[in-house]
Design a protein that fits this description.
Layout (H helix, E strand, L loop, with lengths): L1 H17 L2 E3 L5 E3 H16 L4 E7 L5 H17 L3 E7 L2 H9 L11 H11 L3 E6 L6 H14 L8 H6 L1 E5 L8 H18 L2 E7 L13 H13 L3 E5 L7 H10 L5 E7 L6 H7 L27 H6 L5 E2 L14 H12 L2 E2 L2 H5 L3
Parallel strand pairs: 3-4, 3-5, 5-6, 7-8, 7-9, 9-10
Antiparallel strand pairs: 1-2, 6-11
Helix pairs in contact: 2-5, 5-6, 8-9
Length: 363
């Protein structure tokens, strides 16, 4: 079921990113691609105050809580990075389209990174930092990198080559980019935020993860490394995912049982930049597979996961052995914690200069 859903979403995203032909108010036929570009161009021209710019790139969401977290993050960047203009982008075409359609919240336009980068090139920002708001350097981070490469290599063929050869282009890395420094810093920050919960029971963090076939850069290992770092601080911390093989909620419970933790409270918290659909539904939702009334009724699928059941109901159902309910759901995204957000901002300060233009156009 998950693979079919994933493929359907991927196909929808591809269709959405191609662009369609539509009529504007003045009866000119233009593609959605050009329509989007014009909107972003106008935004950048109207708001350009500096010669340096930061583009924050998130996967996206259609939850007001997520929008609030993104807006707060943008404000924090504007406060800490004087001399830079700051913009926010979604990398998911599905989220962009649903946000524009007003799914769950008032309609709002977010645009993909390539439109912002094109607009930055047209007004000739002297320095561009693209900051990934991804948690791991996985599939979604790969999309961010590719957008930067396309811009640097003038994919649309309409940016001045002399400008591209001289502009300073940087990429800020995801939260858990480094296996040691980042993992340990995030573990310490999480403990500072959740130590009171860990003193009362298990704290199970739910990350996203990538299926094996999409595990770009083999980034799933960061979840395992983070759990190891957290458990050096407190044995009550566990890290699972919704999409990483062998690290679903079923395996999290298995590790808890093997550690001798067979009862007590289970607090669940999203290990994601924002609290959106996964946090409120996959983790804290009320969904429960039909006919399931006790733990022994659950059926594990071929991937080793129990589908159609939230983490709350999986750990909290009769017979599971734990107390897990609405009171133990900690539904705040990582960007809502100042000390976690600061790690992303440190990555922006340490953003690496990339030279994709000269790598493709040697002099």
């Amino acid at each position: 079921m998950k693979k079919i859903k994933f493929l359907m979403i991927a196909m929808m995203a591809i269709i959405a990113s191609v662009g369609f032909v539509a009529c504007s108010d003045d009866d000119d036929d233009i593609s959605n691609t050009e329509r989007y570009q014009r909107a972003v161009d106008e935004n950048v021209k109207a708001n350009k105050k500096n010669n340096k710019v930061i583009l924050l790139v998130a996967f996206g969401s259609t939850w007001q809580q997520a929008y609030d977290a993104f807006d707060a993050t943008k404000r924090a960047y504007e406060s800490q990075f004087s001399g830079y203009d700051v913009y926010l982008s979604f990398s998911s075409a599905i989220c962009i389209n649903r946000a524009a359609a007003g799914e769950n919240v008032a309609p709002r336009n977010f645009y993909a990174p390539q439109y912002w980068l094109e607009a930055f090139g047209r007004v000739k920002y002297q320095e561009i930092i693209v900051q990934s708001l991804q948690v791991i350097p996985g599939e979604e981070y790969g999309r961010v990198v590719n957008a930067v490469k396309d811009f640097a290599n003038n994919a649309n063929g309409d940016i001045d080559d002399e400008y591209l050869s001289k502009v300073t282009l940087k990429i800020g890395l995801p939260l858990l980019a480094d296996a040691e420094t980042d993992v340990n810093n995030v573990a310490l920050a999480l403990d500072a935020n959740f130590k009171s919960n860990a003193a009362q029971g298990v704290v199970a963090f739910m990350g996203h993860g990538n299926p094996d076939e999409y595990d770009t850069y083999k980034a799933n290992i960061r979840y395992t490394q983070l759990e190891e770092a957290l458990q050096k601080i407190n044995k009550n911390y566990f890290v699972g995912t919704v999409d990483m093989a062998d690290n679903f909620k079923v395996q999290v419970r298995g590790r808890m049982q093997a550690a001798g933790i067979k009862s007590g409270k289970v607090f669940c918290a999203p290990l994601m930049s924002i609290a959106g659909d996964h946090a409120h539904n996959d983790m804290a939702g009320d969904d429960l597979a039909e006919g399931v009334t006790k733990f022994s009724d659950f059926e594990v699928n071929s991937e080793g996961e129990v589908e159609d059941t939230s983490w709350k109901n999986y750990f909290g159902i009769a017979g599971a052995g734990y107390t897990c309910d609405d009171n133990t759901m900690l539904t705040k995204g990582l960007l809502e914690y100042d000390n976690i957000r600061q790690i992303w901002m440190n990555h922006t300060r340490q953003a690496e200069v990339v030279d994709y233009y000269h790598s493709k156009n040697p002099e």
